[in-house]
Amino acid sequence: MTLAHDDRGPQHGRPVLLVHGHPFDRSMWRPQAERLAGQGYRVITPDLRGYGASPTTDVKTGLDVFAQDLVDLADELRLGRFVLGGLSMGGQIVMQLVADHPGRAEALLLADTFPGLDTPAARQARLDTADRVTTEGMARYAEELLPKMISPETRRTRPDVEAHVRRMMRDAPKEGAAAALRGRAERPDYTAGLAKIDVPTLVVVGSEDEFTPVADARLIHELIPGSTLAVIEGAGHLPNLERETEFDEALSTFLNSSGATP
């Protein structure tokens, strides 16, 4: 399938493919897309299958399916190797893509994500939530998630970010969100594969992230040889929106130092 996507910046620029998390859409990466495109990068931000403007008929979407969709999009856009970044579920899709399609990514961004399996209780909670949102929609689920998605400080000081995050979650198609929850509950453990990653990698996490705390990011950093860790103070699970200036500076510095320049 062809994913709905934005393709910003010069066509000859170094390609950067950014993968959103659950239950969001490609507008999650708008600050980074605008800044990097202005610096000469070619920035591609897709809506994953079942999210935003990308349709799905899936009842369950595995992370391998998401990864294949991204490779297919890269092929359609005639991208050979590219910088690949993802946040939360997007980060897990990045780890899946690296495992399934070696050689495609020339540098990685892993933001607010974790490589391991869910506990049995957490796995069941994903399956139960999938059934729930299929029945009742996304509105109540979004309101329950919001306080954990962004930090209390962000909610106090950035009503624009809170409104954006709420809108993305409430507007996420319930069928796509449910399919992803079911697929994610069956994902493999990516931990052992991290030591095999041999491209420059930036690991980012918000200091107040409740879903994937700093300890999870430190583990990824320790396992990926030569990786860089950036902790964004005052941010929760979405530091790229909550503290976009600090996040963008860390990402730009990484891209410049890793050789992935436009």
From TrEMBL:
Pfam families: Abhydrolase_1. One of its GO terms (molecular function) is catalytic activity. Signal peptide: none annotated. It comes from the Bacteria. InterPro entries: AB_hydrolase_1, AB_hydrolase_fold, AB_hydrolase_sf, Epox_hydrolase-like. Residues 15-243 form the AB hydrolase-1 domain. Coiled coil: none annotated. This is Pimeloyl-ACP methyl ester carboxylesterase.
